[in-house]
């Protein structure tokens, strides 16, 4: 276990499939196949080119450098470095990440590497994907191969990004690749994703005990709309599948009994002797991705087991007072941000410190810049400021949150919504590949600079406060 710095880390995040392009330079992934299913991606786009980042990474690192971030969170495309997910590694594929890491370090930016952000090599899906235990072995081999190539320079590793999404949107709801709708398979995927995390951390730590290892979860509190027992039960069920299954297992408490009851019999036979101990391999940090909280109401006549995605619940979309909804239709709920940071660190202190590894919003931005060449994105600036304030509130409470990564550096491929939803601090014209900074990029740059100035100007400043103008 390493000590992570107590100074606050400011960063921006992306993910391989969403920005890289260069389809020819890698093996097929489940997302390539999913994009070819008619109707799977709403605008019919795919990951073939997206932001063409593989060829434009130097420019993108310059944008990061101008932004003033300490760190950049990116993911490695498994199929770029190991085209079929097993066997030989690709020198060309590894070469790209090698150059990227060097470019970042040259700019004084720390690389934060995520090993898996949903782009499973397609061949592994043919063998069962995350529903199969064999993928766990393949993943550990892959993790060690990436570490072997980059571990001399990369010291911050996240195993998985939002494994709930990989398992439940990919194998349960079927709205993400591989498009499977089967709760038994989603349950098995849950277990295998966790197991692959623990085994990879243990194996990688043996190679490099001085690096930090963690996992990134999407957590939200889920607030009950009323105090009725039926509502509270349903909220607790959802909380089990979304939050506690992951957190409890990682913290070494096993799967929560009430959730096991829900997942049973799907989990039966999947958990082998010693698995839970391996999943509980100690982590150096927990990553939290936060977009919005959910307000929940018990649904008439729905039983928890009928839909493990939203167990017995309806979603009531309700933003914080004075806030609305983003272009994704997600309510703007900064209050839930402070809440989930507090809850995670209070109920699971052994998983901390906490880094916010993603936070951001999609809006229908103007395509044409203002007179000064900057894209006006007032609502994104508002979202950013509201969430930086909620973050400052958490820091002021003394909660051990040590970093924040904005999602996303660039407009990119937003999964089932393709190129139609823009989350970037920087606009990307997908025809010309031109990058244009938005007002939110400037606002984030200024917030980072202000925080750094206040941190260095006087040690007497209240600890953990972030000026948010
Ligand atoms: C993240 O996922 C991803 O890591 C990133 O790749 C992606 O581009 C980004 O966010 C924006 O989507 O059941 O209706 O309450 C987002 C994770 C988890 C956010 C589920 C919305 C609530 C859906 N999502 N969440 S609902």
What's the number of helices?
15
Radius of gyration: 21 Å
Provide the list of bound ligands, each named once: ligand GBH
Distance between the termini: 37 Å
What level of helicity do the residues show? 25-40%
Quaternary assembly: single chain
Organism: Aquipuribacter hungaricus
Keywords: Carbohydrate metabolism, Cellulose degradation, Glycosidase, Hydrolase, Polysaccharide degradation
InterPro entries: GH, Glyco_hydro_1, Glyco_hydro_1_beta-glucosidase
Family: Belongs to the glycosyl hydrolase 1 family.
What would you note in describing this structure?
The chain is an alpha/beta fold and 469 residues long. It has helices at residues 16-19, 30-35, 53-67, 78-81, 91-106, 122-126, 134-150, 163-169, 183-207, 229-250, 257-263, 275-279, 334-347, 378-396, 439-457, and strands spanning 9-13, 71-75, 110-116, 156-161, 212-218, 223-224, 285-289, 295-298, 313-316, 354-358, 401-407, 426-428, 435-437. The strands form 3 sheets. It has an 8-stranded parallel β-barrel, surrounded by 6 helices. Strands 6-8-9 form a 3-stranded mixed sheet. It has a two-stranded antiparallel sheet with strand order 12-13. β12 (426-428) and β13 form a beta hairpin. α7 packs parallel to α9. The chain is globular and about 60 Å long. The two termini are 37 Å apart. Mean pLDDT is 96; it is low at 465-469. Residues 15, 18, 161-162, 165, 218, 289, 291, 294, 315, 358, 407, 414, 423 line the site of ligand GBH. Its EC number is 3.2.1.21. One of its GO terms (molecular function) is beta-glucosidase activity. It comes from Aquipuribacter hungaricus.
């Amino acid at each position: 276990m390493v000590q992570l710095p107590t100074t606050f880390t400011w960063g921006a995040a992306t993910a391989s499939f969403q920005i890289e392009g260069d389809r020819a330079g890698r093996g097929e992934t489940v997302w390539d196949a999913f994009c070819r299913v008619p109707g799977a991606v709403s605008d019919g786009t795919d990951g073939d080119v997206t932001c063409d980042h593989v060829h434009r990474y130097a420019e993108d690192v310059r944008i990061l450098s101008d932004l003033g971030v300490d760190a950049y969170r990116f993911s490695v495309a498994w199929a770029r470095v190991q085209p079929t997910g097993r066997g030989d590694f690709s020198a060309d594929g590894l070469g790209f990440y090698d150059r990227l890491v060097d470019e970042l370090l040259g700019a004084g930016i720390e690389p934060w590497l995520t090993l898996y952000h949903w782009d499973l090599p397609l061949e592994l899906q043919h063998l069962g994907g995350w529903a199969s235990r064999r993928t766990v072995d393949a993943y550990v081999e892959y993790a060690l191969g990436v570490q072997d190539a980059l571990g001399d320079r990369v010291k911050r590793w996240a195993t998985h990004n939002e494994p709930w999404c990989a398992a439940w949107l990919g194998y349960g709801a079927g709205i993400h690749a591989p498009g499977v709708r089967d709760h038994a398979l989603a349950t098995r995927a849950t277990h295998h994703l966790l197991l692959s995390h623990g085994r990879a951390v243990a194996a990688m730590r043996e190679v490099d005990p001085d690096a930090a290892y963690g996992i990134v979860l999407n957590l939200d509190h889920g607030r009950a709309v009323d105090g009725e027992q039926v509502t509270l039960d349903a909220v607790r069920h959802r909380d089990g599948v979304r939050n506690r299954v992951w957190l409890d297992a990682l913290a070494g408490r096993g799967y929560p009994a009430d959730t096991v009851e829900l997942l049973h019999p799907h989990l039966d036979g999947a958990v082998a002797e010693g698995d839970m101990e391996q999943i509980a391999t100690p982590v150096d940090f927990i990553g939290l991705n936060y977009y919005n909280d959910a307000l929940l109401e018990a649904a008439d006549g729905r039983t928890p087991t009928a839909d493990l995605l939203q167990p017995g619940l309806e979603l009531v979309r309700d933003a914080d007072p004075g806030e609305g909804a983003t272009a994704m239709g997600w309510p703007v709920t900064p209050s839930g941000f402070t809440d989930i940071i507090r809850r995670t660190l209070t109920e699971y202190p052994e998983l901390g410190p906490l880094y916010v590894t993603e936070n951001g919003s999609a809006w229908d931005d103007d395509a044409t810049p203002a007179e000064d060449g900057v894209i006006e994105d007032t609502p994104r600036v508002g979202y950013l400021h509201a969430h930086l304030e909620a973050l400052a509130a958490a820091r002021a409470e003394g909660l051990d949150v040590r970093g924040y990564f904005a999602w996303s550096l660039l407009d990119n491929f937003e999964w089932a919504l393709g190129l139609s939803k823009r989350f970037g601090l920087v606009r990307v014209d997908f025809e010309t590949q031109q990058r244009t900074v938005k007002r939110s990029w400037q606002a984030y740059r200024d917030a980072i600079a202000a925080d750094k100035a206040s941190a260095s100007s006087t040690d007497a400043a209240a600890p953990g406060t972030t000026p948010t103008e």
